[in-house]
Amino acid sequence: MPFKRDTGFSTFPRHVLMPLSETHQTSKHTASGRTETHAKSRYFAVLVFLFILFLCVVAHFIHLENLKDPDLCLDTYHNEEIIHLHILREGVNFLQAKRRLPQVIIIGVRKGGTRALLEFLNVHPMIQKSSEEEHFFDNDARHSLGLEWYRRKMPFSLPGQITIEKSPAYFITDKVPERIHEMNSSIKLLLIVRDPVTRLISDYSQLSANKAKKGKPLPPFEKLVFKSGGKVNTNYKAVKIGMYSIYVRKWLKVFNDRQIFVVSGDQLIRDPFIELKQIEDFLGLKHYVKRENFYYNKTKGFFCVRNETLNKCLNDSKGRKHPVILPVLISKLRRFYAPYNREFYQTVGRSFAWPEE
To answer: N or C terminus of the chain: which is more exposed, having fewer CB within 10 Å?
Structure first.
């Protein structure tokens, strides 16, 4: 019986139908195409990552080289040079930022307004402050670590900016003037003072508050400040700090009077703008700080400072309430400090007219 071929009953034209082997071949091509695309994407991503990593490594090593400045950046500020604000507007490369030794130091006095002065100066774009009191020149252990250690404690600054540090203990420590002079003989110094009687009471208030937190109450004010016979106790450190004329003479043996600007701490409390304007002139800075940068905080009882990016009030440890001191004791202290005050006025060439009775 002859074999009969089955033609099937498909309604699709023969040319539309695809053999099974061809279907498998097409799937293989599609899969391999996708694999190749994914491989190219991964390859491109790896190249981008390696390029970014390379840039970071290069920037890192360039920055390390900048930090190894052999002269410690002492020559980046010139006393006679007026610094203009356009320096900051020229888009300085971030790799030019370095930690520089301070060109200005606030040397004291304790409870004279050093923190307020530092924060007010920080409003100026050409000033970079060191927020911490480094005590490099009055602390033997720290001083033995060397200038490179000290420099690395300073903030980053751009060319033309002034780095400023403050440590109030510098003013009363004998070895400090010579040590600072050895670092930079042309450095500029800021000394902020206030009525020594008010300063003494403020000093006692801070010590008393700190001792109370530790459960170690301080003796009454009159017990520390006066001897049993009623004389002022000059062995008490807080009393001696206010004898400004004794200390300033030691500084003027090392630095000339054109390198030291004496700031009125009392004026800084009443109207900080006036003092800041004079300091800008002393530092060779273009006037930038304006009266509008200061506003009086009634709650805290002193001025705060602000600009486009900063709004700073001193912390709660500043402006604390002073203890009530008998008027007779205040008068006795004023009479004690009067001769030292007059000598101080004559030495620095500025009268502060502190009460003498």
So the answer is: N
